[in-house]
Specification:
290 residues; mainly alpha; globular
Length: 290
């Protein structure tokens, strides 16, 4: 699984994140555990790669450092691109726990965020000093970094309107705030969730895939992370065509209509949703006789 596919998942999570915070939309604990474990394993493999470079740098082996860049370029791209999913998951985890007044998701997603920030800082240090890398390669990776950072702010922008606390995970909080209020950004939030344009992938492919020139560094780890993220999403969040439902539709499906008082289902007493008896008597059959 490529890192760009994880960025697409980030857009999907951002588009459905508000619905995950509805009462009754419980995320399976097994999915969160798998997400944490898969990220931990991936971080340990990243750490081994950076440790190898530090060893070569300490020994002054310039040619070996150049070979390291060639063999670990996919890892660096993976760290920069998959940061989008890490930040979005951390923001959604914080939003869910604070709305539902629980502590089941934020500690896990935030710890994954801290691991990823450590890997990100190591990448930025490599790009800053550039030992073993060419100037053209460093500039390309820097453009990839800036594109990924803009996607983070773009995906968190609509969520920050009803939940300003998620700006903690934005790259540039003022930019994310302005993007959320700008209709030209392609997102809309009017109480019914984000528009479908937020999770469509062509824009992500155009801005990120074109800057990723290498293969996949850790395909199995990325696949496990992607599978865990998909397990966090609920079937009720999608219609029969696989498209995210609006927030209002999911409230009705989960019996959480805003018009319903606490503890009462959406159908009870609602003028548009009459409750029919559970058993309907069989209508009489009229026989016409001559």
């Amino acid at each position: 699984m490529q890192a760009v596919e994880l960025a697409r998942l980030a857009a999907l999570v951002a588009a459905t994140g508000d619905a995950l915070a509805l009462p009754g939309a419980a995320i399976p604990e097994s999915a969160l555990t798998e997400y944490w474990v898969a990220n931990r394993q991936r971080f340990e493999m990243w750490d081994r790669g950076f440790a190898r470079f530090a060893e070569l740098e300490e020994l002054g082996r310039v040619l070996a450092m150049r070979e390291w860049w060639s063999s670990h370029l996919a890892m660096i791209e993976e760290i920069l691109v998959s940061e989008i999913l890490t930040r979005v998951m951390a923001a959604v985890g914080m939003m869910i726990d604070r709305r539902l007044e629980t502590q089941g998701m934020e500690p896990l997603t935030h710890s994954v965020y801290l691991w990823h920030m450590e890997a990100r800082n190591r990448v930025l240090k490599l790009l800053l000093f550039g030992r073993g890398s060419s100037v053209d390669e460093t500039l390309r990776l820097n453009r990839l970094r800036r594109a990924a950072e803009r996607w983070v702010d773009l995906l968190l922008a609509p969520l920050s309107m009803p939940h300003p606390d998620v700006l903690r995970y934005a790259i540039d909080a003022p930019r994310a705030t302005s993007l959320g209020a700008d209709p030209r950004s392609g997102f809309f939030y009017a109480g019914g969730g984000m528009s479908l344009a937020s999770w469509q992938s062509p824009l992500i492919d155009a801005s990120l895939a074109g800057l990723c020139r290498t293969g996949v560094a850790l395909p199995q780890a990325n696949r496990q992370i992607g599978r865990a993220v998909l397990a966090c999403l609920l079937p009720s969040q999608f219609d029969d065509w696989g498209r995210p439902r609006s927030l209002l539709s999911q409230r009705l499906l989960l019996a959480n209509s805003p018009e319903s008082p606490p503890g009462v289902s959406a159908a009870a007493g609602h003028p548009l949703l009459p409750v029919y008896p559970s058993s309907i008597s069989r209508p009489g059959i009229i026989r016409w006789t001559s």
